[in-house]
Amino acid sequence: MRQVGMSGMRALAQLLGDHTGARVGVSDLQVVAQGASGRCIVRSSHPACQGIIGIYWTAEREDNGAFLPAADGLRRAGVPVPEVYARADYGGGRGACLVQDLGERSLLSMKGAAESELGKAYRAALRSVHALHEVQPDWDLQPPFDAALYRWEQDYFAEHLLGTHLHRPAAVGFSERSESRELAQWLAGQERSAVHRDFQSQNIIMCGTEAYLIDFQGMRYGLPEYDLASLLYDPYMEVSAELRGELLNDALTLYGGRINGERLQACSLQRLMQALGAYANIGYHRGNAWYLELIPTGIRILSEVCAAISSDAPAAPMAACIQNALFSH
Length: 329
Description:
Elements lengths: L4 H16 L8 E6 L4 E6 L7 E6 L9 H10 L7 E8 L2 E7 L14 H19 L13 H19 L12 H11 L4 E3 L8 E4 L2 E4 L6 E3 L1 H9 L8 H14 L6 H25 L4 H4 L1 H14 L7 H12 L2
Antiparallel strand pairs: 1-2, 2-3, 3-5, 4-5, 6-9, 7-8
Helix pairs in contact: 3-6, 3-7, 4-5, 4-8, 6-8, 8-10, 10-11
């Protein structure tokens, strides 16, 4: 309860009580997730609160308050997201809501399942994110992917993965290299649509045969290929090359040829750089060593993506730059 404090827990207990008509106390709440982003997610052991998740947030991150408008808009558009049962605005960027409890069968929880079962879940996830990509949002999104944001991801990778974790001299001035700037500018010049921004296995909940999306408060305009890269090259899961190829073919069919291979390569580099930067940052600076265990897998996948990029592709100079930074001492 350190990040949100007792006031947040009391607010959730009150909201649950108001919604259900039951007497719900803080002692009835169990924290499901609480990160360093000013959000707390709880379940209640009270019988009247079954099937409900409580979320409380502060203004610590600008996108925390974007959850409700996105949930409402996505649900209106028919995208599989949790239903919102109740909400409260406490001012100063603080708020809370009660949403549908979808259970704990995330895509990540299926790691190690038979590939046929995984394939069904991944294909359901592709259908859900495709529906999101088709939405024309009538609510405010987060600032769009532009050259500055792509370069921020590159800096994040350089500072935390190359610098803090690997102690590579290439960390200095990494995003100022011509390869970095040119890739960021090329990506920023591509046609954009609404994207999830963090479309990885922890944020996909399987409910029956349908894949529900969560943690979509970071939605913004960007490239659909970024979300696809987040799913297909997720270091949490290590999808086999065979299944990844099948899923990519399914995506090409689903999107009617709108998915571009060169953009997918470039987005894969960007997403993996962002993820590796996050793993190192969270592992070293937020005390969660589990993320450090993901780094070798992430580096291996990033290196494989780099090696697969043809020499005449837009991402080729950046791929060579990454390989050099990773493996040259």
